[in-house]
Amino acid sequence: MSSLYRLIYTSFRKPECDEEEIDNILSACKKNNPGRNVTGVLLHSDKRFIQYIEGEKDEVLDLYELIKDDPRHTSVNQRNFEPIANRIFPSWEMGYKDVDKIAFDTDASSINEKTFNRLIKGELDFDDNAMRILQLFFKMA
Ligand SMILES: Cc1cc2nc3c(=O)[nH]c(=O)nc-3n(C[C@H](O)[C@H](O)[C@H](O)COP(=O)(O)O)c2cc1C
What we know:
- The chain is α+β, with helices and mostly antiparallel strands.
- It is built from four helices and five strands, in the order E-H-E-E-H-E-E-H-H.
- Helix 3 (107-120) packs across helix 4 (128-140).
- Bound molecules: flavin mononucleotide (FMN).
């Protein structure tokens, strides 16, 4: 029986985690996530990461254990872990976006920017609205 879960964490990007290291992280995602049948999105700014991981429960937890100890980030904080009916990022192995490159040009997007910033700082819960904003950010970046 399949047990699909989502896990979301936030963390601080270490200053030594430069663009080259980000490329290395993405290569690891590309190499490992398809085998784990894990999808999701990794968003970052210059100082923070937020990653949404979805897949079979054990695969998600195993991957999170590995990521948690990665020296390229710190203060890794699990924000959400719960069963889901369907994937929301079914077609990406691990989408990756730099949130600093998002252009906020409308009132609506500036409201979403505020919400997103509160999410990534750990000030809000990951409810349905938060998921919607996460998807929106992924599409905008
Ligand atoms: C913010 C962040 C996100 C990461 N996400 C993933 C991921 O989704 N999949 C993955 O395999 N490794 C990810 N990694 C890298 C792992 O911590 C680890 O270095 C990598 O899986 C080792 O892969 P390898 O044994 O194939 O070299 C991430 C690292 C960081 C810092």
